[in-house]
Specification:
Blueprint: E1 2-5, E2 12-17, H1 23-29, E3 36-41, H2 42-47, H3 49-56, E4 63-68, H4 77-89, E5 97-102, H5 104-116, E6 122-127, H6 130-136, E7 141-146, E8 149-156, E9 161-165, H7 174-191, H8 193-201, H9 203-207, H10 211-231, H11 246-255, H12 262-279, H13 285-298, H14 309-320, E10 327-333, E11 335-344, H15 347-355
Parallel strand pairs: 2-9, 3-4, 3-5, 5-6, 6-9
Antiparallel strand pairs: 1-2, 7-8, 10-11
Helix pairs in contact: 4-5, 6-7, 7-8, 7-10, 7-12, 11-12, 11-14, 12-13, 12-15, 14-15
The structure holds nicotinamide-adenine-dinucleotide and zinc ion.
Residues 41, 43-44, 47-48, 70-72, 75, 102-106, 108, 128-129, 131-132, 135-136, 139, 141, 150-151, 168, 171-172, 176 line the site of nicotinamide-adenine-dinucleotide.
């Protein structure tokens, strides 16, 4: 399956496959030659590198591999400096390519290194986590954390292509797979009710790695994210809809000291957003239950008994660096598949929606 992201001269294809065998032809199609450096992390290296490297070696140019320690703690400028040093030691030129094999951390780091080394060299994404396949590898946002702030240093830098092998999900820890599904469900909620129902209906097939279901989900998912990015590459308006569930979700993530995965917090944030919409009479209450049911079927959290409502509430203001008392939320309108941006200054209502997460 092939999709195209249309961004004028920065347009690129997304290939959705079930193995690594088409990597060489994808590189040829992108007219990539020269040296190729695969960047991956210590976990992905264990499970995926071998097959991927075997396939890359069919490519004419020289192929190198660089492994960073797995985890968000690697997503910083120290790792970037180490990568620059490695690239310099290989005498890479402008014609070279960095290939990111891994989750969102590897993709964001590799993309940032590619965007900045020699003012920009080729970049290819081979996302291996569901979060990366469904979200972070499409859209061109790359970057690192700095001084305790997430993604605060970065760039918009589009890859030459994205190569998704859905079978990489087989080695992903189940909790990571579940967390990645939160963003997939989010895409259904913001734009496609039928897709939402498809996910709900096929949860078991997802967890048994049914190739055709995974490929279909990836296709719809990337086209939803892609269509939003096409209309708003540099996030000035519409792209904000992708933040559905994230205003409260991010705050929970921080207040819980990153003990919960990002997708798990987004799941909680989406439930709270539906509650807010219910209290604002933008949706019927049965819709809240419908969404909760789907999230629970996936195994995502829909409640957090020990949530500190005031802390979460205050954290949202820190996150948005907002003065005064107005927060912007993306909320569902009438049905699944449609959202609107709402500025809300009703503290009691917001806190009630957060407090509801206790039960
Ligand atoms: P991650 O890259 O840390 O991957 C999660 C874990 O799964 C890691 O331990 C990793 O080693 C492991 N893993 C990945 N693929 C595997 C596989 N196939 N088999 C076995 N283990 C595997 O985290 P993530 O959830 O993929 O991504 C999170 C990052 O993405 C965050 O840093 C976040 O800021 C970023 N992000 C970026 C964007 C964007 O638009 N650029 C969007 C959303 C999130
Ligand atoms: Zn997210």
């Amino acid at each position: 399956i092939k999709l195209n992201i249309n961004l004028n001269e920065r347009s690129y294809p997304i290939y959705i496959t079930t193995d690594y065998s088409d990597l060489k032809s994808s590189l040829d199609n992108a007219k990539i030659n020269g040296k190729l450096v695969l960047i991956t992390d210590s976990n992905v290296d264990k499970y995926q590198s071998q097959q991927c490297m075997d396939s890359l070696r069919k490519f004419e140019g020289e192929v190198f591999k660089y492994v960073i320690p797995a985890g968000e703690k690697s997503k910083n400028l120290d790792t970037i400096r180490d990568i620059y040093q490695y690239l310099i030691s290989l005498k890479l030129d402008r014609n070279s390519t960095l290939v990111a094999l891994g989750g969102g951390v590897v993709g964001d780091i590799t993309g940032f290194a590619a965007a900045t080394f020699l003012r920009g060299i080729n970049f290819v994404q081979i996302p291996t986590s569901l979060l990366a396949q469904s979200d972070s590898s499409v859209g061109g946002k790359v970057g690192v954390d700095f001084n305790g702030s997430k993604n605060i240093i970065g760039a918009f830098y589009q890859p030459k292509f994205v190569y998704i092998n859905v079978n990489t999900l087989r080695t992903l820890p189940k909790r990571e797979l579940q967390a990645g599904l939160a963003e997939v469900v989010k895409h259904g909620i913001i734009q496609d009710a039928e897709f939402f129902d498809y996910i709900d209906y096929n949860v078991n097939k997802i967890f048994s790695f049914d190739e055709s279901v995974l490929q279909y989900i990836t296709k719809i998912n990337c086209s939803i994210k892609g269509s939003v990015v096409e209309k708003d590459e540099r996030e000035s308006g519409l792209r904000a809809n992708l933040n559905f569930g994230h205003t409260i979700g991010h705050a929970i993530e921080t207040v819980m000291n990153f003990e919960l995965l990002h997708g798990e917090c987004v799941s909680l944030g989406m439930v709270a957003a539906f509650r807010m919409a219910q209290y604002l009479e933008m949706i019927e209450s049965d819709l809240v239950d419908k969404v909760k049911n789907t999230l629970m079927k996936i195994g995502l959290p829909v409640k957090l008994e020990n949530i500190d409502v005031d802390k979460v509430y205050n954290q949202m203001f820190y996150d948005k660096k907002i003065k005064g008392n107005k927060l912007t939320f993306i909320l569902p309108r009438k049905k699944i598949g449609e959202v609107v941006q709402c500025t809300i200054d009703d503290e009691a209502l917001i806190k009630r929606a957060i407090a509801d997460l206790k039960e």
